[in-house]
């Protein structure tokens, strides 16, 4: 496999080294730069031990390709040695016995750093929710939570409370591997529109949902694409619909981690039959995961005050995030998402207040709930 030159700013210094396209960032740091403070646990993006910062946001370095970080600013745990906030956190972890074996500690500190900077008013419940993406097998988490609460309650340095800057960057001539990469804070680039025949091997999912609103009023919402997007947690448009083409993104949060799928879709509506088709593709830049799918839907009246929406979807998820795409889990998660979306659409169709701008879809909470239900059914 050919090597690719990767240049990035690593803990404040510019470094360049060759790496295979399949090399993940954690190995690139540990093996090529001897920065062994980044620990590897599950190597599936689940345990959080390898958490570090890329362009000012926490990422799982075990599922982030080093090549995807070409031109980025990377900060590992070693890069926080002189940081005043991290010094406070280290001291607080020691004071409250927030570490035992220490294996999870670098990732825990990285996540704690993000919590303090992003959520200065976080209470214990919110801290625990934010830590849910980091696994500790020793402490029981109580000391870690208390350590973070202590820092938040005792005037952390004001500079530390300023949001981390996120550097904008574009693919360079030597980063062809990023041809479809889209930074999370920039408009979505056009992706090649999906060839439906390419999904012959995709996973199928069918669902029916009942909406508490007449079919005519529901269709008026479904035919208004910006209104539908506003009903989907984590979804947003990057511009108006043009020639049946829509461009946008959907942000999925896994604890403190965020995957931003940006891309394009073609939408076809048949107002007379009240049916439609959506075919689209999305990419997450850092994990280099991709999602392609086709959704067919049909709306029918259920009496005068209700309607039924039939959905048939075929999708394919590739890349590191594909581990969360098992059909049984997707079906459970889809049910929870559709319940919220249906309630929002029905509210709009009934003339009620529009839902607030959706936050990022909490994939971790959905995943945990789905796993619990599947275990109960088993």
Task: List the keywords.
single chain, 378 residues, alpha+beta, Ubiquitin-like (UB roll), Alpha-D-Glucose-1,6-Bisphosphate, Chain A, domain 4, 5-stranded mixed sheet, 13 strands, 28% helix
Can you describe this structure?
The chain has 378 residues and is an alpha+beta fold. The chain folds into two domains: 1-179, Roll (Ubiquitin-like (UB roll)); 183-377, Alpha-D-Glucose-1,6-Bisphosphate, Chain A, domain 4. It has nine helices and 13 strands. Strands 6, 7, 8, 9, 10, 11, 12 and 13 form an eight-stranded mixed β-sheet that branches. It has a five-stranded mixed β-sheet with strand order 2-1-5-3-4, with helices on both faces. A hairpin with a 2-residue loop joins strand 1 and strand 2 (13-19). The longest helix has 23 residues, at 327-349. Residues 161-189 have low confidence and may be disordered.
């Amino acid at each position: 496999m050919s090597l690719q030159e990767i240049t990035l700013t690593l803990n404040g210094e510019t470094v360049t080294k060759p790496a295979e396209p399949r090399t993940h960032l954690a190995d690139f740091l540990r093996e090529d730069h001897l920065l062994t403070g980044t620990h590897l646990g599950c190597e599936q993006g689940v345990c959080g031990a390898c958490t570090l910062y890329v362009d000012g946001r926490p990422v799982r370095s075990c599922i982030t390709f080093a090549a995807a970080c070409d031109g980025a600013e990377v900060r590992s745990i070693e890069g926080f040695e002189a940081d005043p906030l991290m010094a406070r956190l280290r001291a607080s972890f020691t004071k409250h016995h927030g570490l035992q074996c220490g294996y999870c500690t670098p990732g825990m500190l990285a996540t704690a750093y993000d919590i303090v900077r992003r959520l200065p008013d976080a209470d214990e419940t919110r801290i625990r929710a934010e830590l849910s993406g980091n696994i500790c097998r020793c402490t029981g988490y109580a000391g870690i939570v208390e350590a973070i609460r202590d820092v938040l309650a005792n005037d952390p340095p004001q500079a530390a409370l300023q949001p981390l800057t996120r550097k904008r960057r574009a693919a360079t001539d030597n980063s062809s591997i990023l041809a479809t990469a889209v930074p999370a804070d920039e408009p979505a680039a056009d992706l090649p529109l999906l060839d439906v025949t390419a999904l012959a091997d995709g996973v199928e999912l069918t669902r029916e949902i009942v909406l508490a609103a007449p079919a005519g009023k529901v269709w008026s919402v479904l035919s208004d694409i910006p209104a539908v997007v506003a009903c989907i947690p984590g979804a947003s448009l990057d511009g108006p619909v043009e020639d049946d083409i829509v461009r946008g993104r959907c942000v999925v949060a896994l604890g403190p981690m965020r995957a931003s799928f940006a891309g394009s879709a073609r939408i076809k509506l048949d107002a007379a039959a009240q049916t439609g088709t959506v075919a689209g593709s999305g990419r997450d830049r850092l994990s280099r995961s991709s999602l392609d799918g086709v959704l067919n839907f049909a709306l029918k009246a259920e009496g005068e005050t209700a309607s039924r929406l039939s959905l048939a979807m075929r999708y394919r998820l590739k890349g590191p995030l594909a581990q969360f795409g098992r059909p049984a889990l997707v079906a459970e998660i889809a049910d929870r998402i559709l319940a919220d979306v249906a309630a929002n659409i029905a509210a709009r169709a009934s003339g009620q207040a529009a839902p607030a701008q959706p936050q990022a879809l909490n994939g971790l909470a959905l995943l945990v709930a789905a796993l619990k239900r599947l275990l109960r059914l088993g």
